Amino acid sequence: MSKTTEVVQTAANSNKDVVNTLETAILEAVAEARSTCEVNGSDSNDCAVAWDIVEELQAEKSHQKQAAKIKNSLDDYCASNPNALECRVYDI
């Protein structure tokens, strides 16, 4: 399972292509979980941990997709003109 840990850390540290990296990590984690369960049995703690890793990776992928926001014309304008009145954000 150390290979899966390395993949997870690489995915977490990478800012570009995070979803693609997570997709690869999920596929590798699924393969490792299946082999772990075949070796140790489906009722073993190692099997449960391996599938928990898969679940966590899938949840992170879902969160990354939700966090990706589609920019609209106001977002583009504010990126070019951060001091414009329309772009000011006030904390209350």
Helix content: over 70%
Oligomeric status: single chain
Average the pLDDT over all residues and give the rounded result: 83
Evaluate the radius of gyration: 20 Å
Care to count the β-strands?
0
Uncertain segments of ≥5 residues (pLDDT<50)?
Answer: none
Number of domains: 1
User: What does the largest sheet look like?
Assistant: none
Order of helices and strands: HHHH
What's the overall geometry? elongated
Distance between the amino and carboxyl termini: 47 Å
Helices, by number, come to 4
**Alpha-beta classification:** mainly alpha
Strand content: under 5%
Describe the structure in brief.
Helices cover 72% and strands 0% of the residues. By secondary structure, the chain is mainly α.
Overview of the molecule:
By secondary structure, the protein is mostly helical. It has one domain. Helices cover 72% and strands 0% of the residues. The protein has 4 helices and no strands. The chain is elongated.
List keywords for this structure.
single chain; 92 residues; mainly alpha
List the helices and strands and how they pair.
Blueprint: H1 2-13, H2 18-40, H3 45-67, H4 73-80
Helix pairs in contact: 1-2, 2-3
